[in-house]
């Protein structure tokens, strides 16, 4: 028989007193948000320069950054459809492991011959990283919805602190490691950190039991809602604005201000810090506004 604390958390005291499973869930998802974002943002300060040395144009560099979002989007759709069959915890941990492998492999790409072969391998490894992250983030969203059915916005807002920390620390750490040790060390070091998160989450992440199988047409019914379409467009627009900076900002700063790569990462701090500070506040405000749907009626995980 399933533990009642796993399938039906105490919603009345979610904000004031968290259950053990809720605390462990927050730790697990925080480790995912932090490790995935620090690995994602590490490329910004120095990869464009390395790619230029390998004979790639700015357009191709931008496509390498952009392919992450494309494969993350496509894989999330597939993983969301088969989440119940695969199991949320297994998907969470296996996605984290895949992302760690891809991060280490990306650090070895400087050994690849210049030109087309280098570009193809960058696309391939970046796509694998996106698929791994897509699996983990899809599972984590469902787990959070189950663990915090009435305060999901507050929980996600709190966890976005760690997303912001990953975005904050990734560029300066990556820049200084690259400046000190070269291209390989930043990726290998952070890849090992991601690997360390795998056994941690295997041990502490609670296994929530599904209440029922999801509706076969639930996804398309959700996408067709006008409010959801507006939200998707808003996220697309904001993400596009952020995505423009990754492949271009470091090249512009180095060419214009002649900064060392280690200091280029500090330029990315402003955006990430404001994101970290505002997310938990906005999450708490959102939970205090009137809601029109029940999270427990729309998510089922195994």
UniProtKB/TrEMBL annotation:
Sorted UniProt keywords: Membrane, Transmembrane, Transmembrane helix, Transport
A family per Pfam: MFS_1
Domain Major facilitator superfamily (MFS) profile: 25-302
Alphabetical list of InterPro entries matching this protein: MFS, MFS_dom, MFS_trans_sf, MFS_Vesicular_Transporter
Compartments where found: Membrane
Membrane topology recorded in Swiss-Prot or TrEMBL: Multi-pass membrane protein
Segments passing through the bilayer: 23-43, 55-78, 90-109, 115-145, 157-179, 185-204, 225-245, 257-278
Domain of life: Eukaryota
Protein name: Major facilitator superfamily (MFS) profile domain-containing protein
UniProt source species: Staurois parvus
